[in-house]
Amino acid sequence: MREVGADIRSPGLLAPATEVCDEMARRARRNVEELVRRLTAAGYRFHSNDGRRTSMPPHSPPTATAGEHADWLDEQFGGVPLTMKSWVRHVGDVWFVGTHPDWADADASDPLVLEIEGTVQGETDGEAIQGYFEDEHDAWSEWSDEDPDADPFVIPLAPDALHKSNTSGGDPYGIVLPDRGVDGTWSGETLMSFVDYLNDVFAHGGFPGVAADDAIGRRITADLARDLLEL
């Protein structure tokens, strides 16, 4: 499906491709819910990535207007990948930044964050995050008009690994737009497909940046990742 590009939206392909993406998202949601359960049971505290450490909801399911928000994204930015639209409609927003009682480096291990509908921050109607996305795109447009070598627009969906641990870092993570294909390009520590990124996240129990020499983190994330579904 990736190989056909934007033609995936042609009659006869769009409906089955969307169902495949929806199933991907449903499996991802089960993984997210299981990780929240396991982390909570371990005493993990989900909080903001600043000095206040304000409690944050780890998972905010889609609202009643999630489908409308997904369509708005598609129209506003010239197309978003079908996998991204399915995530908005079936998974919601995720915030795994926090503190583990037995693992001091959890917040430095790039915990999963995805804010597409804006509900983690307490938004209920989508207008605030839509305005944020529009402002970011306007700033990129001005830059790209002045610089013919400007990078493509990346819609900001998560702080980078350093910002997650309350350290000055780089550009936010996100998906390269426009993209009318089935799956998008995730721009994070490396470029990869969105689904490949998510599979890497779940293979590491929600913390894909766990260091190779972090014995405690490796043990904890291996237990978190146990029996999670591949997307």
UniProtKB/TrEMBL annotation:
Region entry Disordered, spans: 47-66
Top-level taxon in the UniProt lineage: Bacteria
Protein's UniProt name: SMI1/KNR4 family protein
